């Protein structure tokens, strides 16, 4: 499903610019710099597809990618960027709310959590928004290569504890490294089987 079939479609800054909701869609949400763009690149096997950078907050638009003819992958702008001006943050929150509550074909939101940090307060706000929008979400741990094997269970326990309080949470957690390839095949098959 993935190889050679992903294309960048468009970046949008308002609901009106979004492509028609005519196919299965999944989105990727997470703090600035958590590795959303890198994960999309790893999933699709195309390094330069979604831009990845060292500068937090680089992805400012909601970026739509087509996956074959039947799916959209959506890269959401990172949240929790400390230096973002308030009007920018408010505009982004409004757009995110509209997107999550108004996109009929959105089947799952993948919420990316850095393996080194676990779920933080800013993440909790997004999880609450997903609950209230009734969008099923699944946690994807990123940058697993940055922690020691023995520290994995600690972050997983923390995440499981938080998910227990969220009705929209999908219980399975996917541990990934875009750098090393861990979990990428698993995530691909999850996306491929959503209907
Ligand atoms: P914004 O678009 O700014 O919100 O960031 P993003 O979430 O798209 O993060 P991005 O993919 O740009 O990655 C941020 C930084 O983390 C880059 O320097 C990446 O190279 C690095 N990174 C991403 N994934 C991994 C990973 O699995 N392992 C390691 N070691 N580094 C990673
Ligand atoms: Mg990005």
UniProtKB/TrEMBL annotation:
Cofactor(s) for this UniProt protein: Mg(2+)
Extract one GO molecular function annotation from the record. metal ion binding
| Pfam families given in the database record | MMR_HSR1 (PF01926)
* InterPro entries, per the entry: G_ENGB_dom (IPR030393), GTP-bd (IPR006073), GTP-bd_ribosome_bio_YsxC (IPR019987), P-loop_NTPase (IPR027417)
CDD domains named among the record's database cross-references: YihA_EngB
In which domain of life is the source organism classified?
Bacteria
Supply the alphabetized keyword list: Cell cycle, Cell division, GTP-binding, Magnesium, Metal-binding, Nucleotide-binding, Septation
Q: Report the residue ranges that make up the EngB-type G domain in this protein.
A: 22-195
A biological process (GO) of this protein is: division septum assembly
Q: Name one GO cellular component term.
A: cytosol
* HAMAP family membership: GTPase_EngB
Q: What is this protein called?
A: Probable GTP-binding protein EngB
Q: Which organism is it from?
A: Pontibaca salina
Which classification does the entry list for the species? Bacteria, Pseudomonadati, Pseudomonadota, Alphaproteobacteria, Rhodobacterales
């Amino acid at each position: 499903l993935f190889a050679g079939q992903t294309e960048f479609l468009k970046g949008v800054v308002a609901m009106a610019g979004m492509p028609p909701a005519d196919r299965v869609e999944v989105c990727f949400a997470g703090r600035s710099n958590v590795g959303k763009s890198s994960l999309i690149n790893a999933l699709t096997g195309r390094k330069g597809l979604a831009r990845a950078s060292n500068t937090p907050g680089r992805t400012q638009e909601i970026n739509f990618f087509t996956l074959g003819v039947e799916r959209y992958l959506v890269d959401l702008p990172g949240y929790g960027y400390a230096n973002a001006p308030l009007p920018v943050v408010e505009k982004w929150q409004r757009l995110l709310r509209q997107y999550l509550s108004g996109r009929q074909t959105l089947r799952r939101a993948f919420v990316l959590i850095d393996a080194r940090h676990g779920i933080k307060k800013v993440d909790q706000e997004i999880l609450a928004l997903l609950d209230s929008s009734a969008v099923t979400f699944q946690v994807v741990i990123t940058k697993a290569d940055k922690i020691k094997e023995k520290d994995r269970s600690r972050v997983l326990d923390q995440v499981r504890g938080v998910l227990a309080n969220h009705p929209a949470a999908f219980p399975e957690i996917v541990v990934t490294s875009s750098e090393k390839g861990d979990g990428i095949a698993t995530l691909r098959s999850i996306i491929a089987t959503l209907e």
